[in-house]
Amino acid sequence: MEIGSPKPVKVYAPEHWVLGAKEISYKFNGSPIVGTFDEKFVLKSESGEILKNVPYVITNKVTGEQIRGITDDEGGTVRVWTESEEEVEMGVDFVRVFSKSSKDKE
């Protein structure tokens, strides 16, 4: 049996296995529980080229919470969730870009 739910599920059975999620997502309070609103970004250059392996930061403009990561091979970020409609902003994490490039020069 496969159960899908946007909320935690308790299962009582004599034998059971617990498997992880099919997709890792982030809620801004740090919990991977699915909220009502979600967004996944794709980072592209001005010419439309997909930017893979680029450090990014997603900021919740309401709470100030941030999620940092590196874009995947399709230029995508992790999916983020909020329980209500909130304004979020995504951009290149220049702090990590510059700190990485300065380490490369050493």
TrEMBL record:
Organism superkingdom: Bacteria
Protein name: Uncharacterized protein
Protein species of origin: Moraxella bovis
